[in-house]
Specification:
With 267 residues, the protein is an alpha/beta fold. The chain has seven helices and ten strands.
Length: 267
Amino acid sequence: MSSNKYQVSVKSRLSLILLVVIFNLFACTETFQKEISISCTESGTIGADKVPHPTQGFDISFQYYLPPCYDDLKNSYFPVIYLIAMPSELRLDQDAHSPMSLTDRLIRDRKLAPVILVVPDPTVGYGYHAALAIDLIPFVDKKLNTLTDRRYRGVGGISHGAAIAARMAFQFPDVFGSLGVFSGGIDASEKPTFDTWIDSTSPENLPRVLINIGDQDGIMPYTQNLTSVLDSWDVPYELNIDPGGHNWVFWSAHMESYLLWFAEAWE
């Protein structure tokens, strides 16, 4: 074979390889569905499942919400918000301010991009946060059309669920891009652990943080434990102290603002 023919053959092969690579990149692109189609008149759906082979010593059952017309959007992928210690919902209620019902209304009103919600069953036990990050997230990513970049994955919780969410976000910063701490915080004994997690994380990889609590909430000292750690490391956060206590009246009144805050990361 002549030198020219050999060069042409190599160039042809390289061109073919390049085309295959480009094709695969486009084929694997996760398309973000920013709003539901005008032709979509359905409501979203609620489902339930269980992690089949947990590895961290915790059984993990969970509910999930899928946005309207999810089954028709095979090539679309969605952000995910994990909500800890939130109420379960048997059906979508047009008047309720519970997370799934409210999310569905906001999406259909085009105030919120289509999003998947995941609500694990409430479990009290240290280490549950790691089980959720290690066992639940990969299972959900495999089961559902999720956007896997941390920017599109948030975690939040109310009361003791806020502590679980905070542990998840700061121990696993590569997994979560946003953290919502609602009427909660951390015990003083956890400060050194959070110091270690934050110290080992580059500033650009720390999560966005929203903290909201009522001015009459007895959990305030736990919130202050968390903010003192964040302040000591100059970790940015948004703190809103509003009138109210530690109850569903307070949380339901603020649920829409929580959901819209998570969505700011996707813009």
